[in-house]
Amino acid sequence: DHKNALFRVIDGVRYLVMTSQDKTNRLNIMRILLEKNIDMTSPNKADKTAIEYVRSKICTGSIFQNQFYEEAEILLIKVKKERDYKILQKEPGIPIDVTKLLFCGDGGAGKTTLKKSLLKTSKSKAGPEPGKDKYVLTPGIDISKEEVPGVGKMVMLDMAGQESYFSSHAMFLYAGLATIIVMYQVCDFINGKIIRPLDIMEREKTR
Description:
Number of domains: 2
Shape: elongated
CATH class of the largest domain: Alpha Beta
Strand order of the largest sheet: 2-3-1-4
Number of strands: 6
CATH architecture of the largest domain: 3-Layer(aba) Sandwich
Strand content: 15-25%
Largest sheet: 4 strands, mixed
């Protein structure tokens, strides 16, 4: 017939589960069957899988019977997810040749500088003294294909931090296919003075 042991356990609840201990015993039988890797995907005569069948039984019996159906559904779903995960682990992965890396953040936060640092193959020379580095605005989005040492091929998107460019950025911000680095400026060094975030905000308004 189309009824494996799981369906027999579920059907027997109507007659055999009268107490809390009956419910526990029945669930333990189901756990043993699942540990033995019993099939839980084939449908019964009503074309329902074990999960669908036990779900259809909820609210059709006594208190202990309904508790069994609810706990059995949770157990079956948990085991199905574990089995699905094991199957996925055995499947060959899809090779990824190119990684997308996005640099986002306010203007002047150092996105372009970080990008250049990632591309260096040897020890870099000392940078300019604090306050003497030259700020060069990135126009829109600077896209380039690079070979990053120790990482491999990457498409780098250096996104301008000025608000006027934000509308064009949305089409590139799909996190499922990219790594996004968000940078922000906590302070700056101008004319020998440390400039704090509120000062930076006032400066950005006039930039």
